[in-house]
Design a protein that fits this description.
Blueprint (H helix, E strand, L loop, with lengths): L6 H33 L7 H8 L7 H39 L11 H14 L4 E3 L7 E3 L2 H26 L3 H25 L2 H11 L8 H20 L1 H8 L2 H6 L4 H23 L5 H13 L3 H25 L8 H19 L4
Antiparallel strand pairs: 1-2
Length: 360
């Protein structure tokens, strides 16, 4: 079959332009949602004031000073944390689904998030890092957040190490990794429930408080650490997108193309788990973002990892930012933890994927 001169390249250019169009549209939507998210809440801030503040305009009046404090000390770090966490969880999910060749692989379904929750429970109940400030009316606080964060992070890495060890003993097959993750998820959930059973009222409240994924608890230093880890991971995944495309075609095909499948799979899992561990350690458990976003992006952009990874990164940031904004507005002035909203949205979508089946 013969094509007219230039027909194939033109079709390919249209194919690529459509992907770039969606990615650029995602960037514009993300910027708009960032400004809108900062403007809404218990105190309404006009959009132009938000933009002026973000551009560094000095406050001229007392009202401007209040707006400056609200934007830079409260809403901007919370919005950026939602973007970074959503991007990190989504890109970890898309890579896990690719290298494991399993549509339900994600940091949440592989038990990494539950391991982090168990680590936080150990810190609060065993090490005593949760308390009530003074009276019953006071808020529950974590009096040593860094110890709690470190304990959560270590258990996330422990879960990843166990999954990789099991896969090495039985061969690094996708099925073994997924089943090991499911088993660990149940084990760590049972461990958390065990600790909650023996915890006093204050410790129980602190564990529940921490387990609720909430982007509002982060500070600028933690945001910088989380952003650095997520950015480095995204760059690593983009640099290996060709390897992931080859694995998508099957292990034998990838090996025929010179890809060290076992090595790529193990390193990819470690990096994805590291990203997930950092996010869970700082923010708590936020489920379904890493599971749902890759499937949504595949519908629009396709399976090519060169575009799927950036697209999933963008959509993850948008989805979690929208969820966090909605969580602040639904029962304002009260603020819902964002993990409640992502679970409400993600669970029906997950059931839909199971019912309709998965077609690459």
């Amino acid at each position: 079959m013969h094509f007219a001169s230039g027909a194939v390249p033109e079709d390919y250019l249209l194919y690529v332009r459509r992907k770039y169009f969606w990615i650029m549209g995602g960037l514009l939507l993300l910027f708009f949602m960032l400004v809108y998210s900062i403007s809404v809440g218990a105190v309404e801030i006009p959009l132009y004031k938000v933009i002026q503040t973000l551009l560094g305009q000095e406050p001229m009046t007392r009202s401007d000073e209040n707006i400056w404090r609200i934007v830079w000390n409260i809403r901007l770090p919370q919005a950026l944390a939602a973007i970074v966490a959503g991007a990190g969880l989504s890109v970890a999910g898309v890579v896990m689904q690719s290298i494991l060749r399993n549509p339900i692989a994600s940091p949440f379904t592989l038990g990494i998030s539950n391991a982090g929750a168990f680590g936080a429970a150990v810190s609060v109940v065993v090490l005593g890092t949760g308390k009530v400030q003074s009276t019953v009316a006071d808020a529950v606080i974590i009096n040593n957040p860094y110890l709690t964060t470190m304990a959560s992070f270590l258990f996330c890495l422990l879960a990843t190490g166990v999954i990789l060890l099991i896969s090495k003993i039985r061969g690094a097959s996708p099925e073994v990794m997924v089943l090991a993750g499911v088993a660990l998820s149940s084990l760590f959930t049972a461990g958390t429930m065990f600790l909650q059973y023996f915890a006093d009222d204050t410790q129980l409240a602190a564990v529940v408080f921490w387990t609720f994924g909430d982007v509002g608890r982060i500070n600028w230093l933690e945001l910088e650490i989380m952003t650095g880890v997520v950015l480095l991971a995204i760059l690593f995944f983009i640099a290996n997108c060709w390897n992931y495309n080859a694995i998508d075609a099957g292990d034998e095909t990838a090996k025929g193309l010179g890809v060290d499948v076992e090595k790529i799979r193990l390193i990819g899992m470690v990096v994805a788990a590291l990203v997930s561990a950092v996010i869970v350690a700082f923010l708590g458990v936020i489920g379904f973002v890493g599971l749902i976003c890759p499937h949504m992006v595949r519908r629009v952009i396709g399976d090519d990892q060169k575009y799927l990874i950036p697209g999933s990164t963008l959509l993850g940031g948008i989805l979690l930012l929208v969820s966090d904004t909605a969580a602040r507005l639904i029962i304002s002035p009260y603020v819902l933890p964002v993990s409640i909203l992502t679970a409400f949205m993600g669970a029906p979508a997950f059931i839909y994927l199971l019912l309709r089946g998965y077609k690459r």
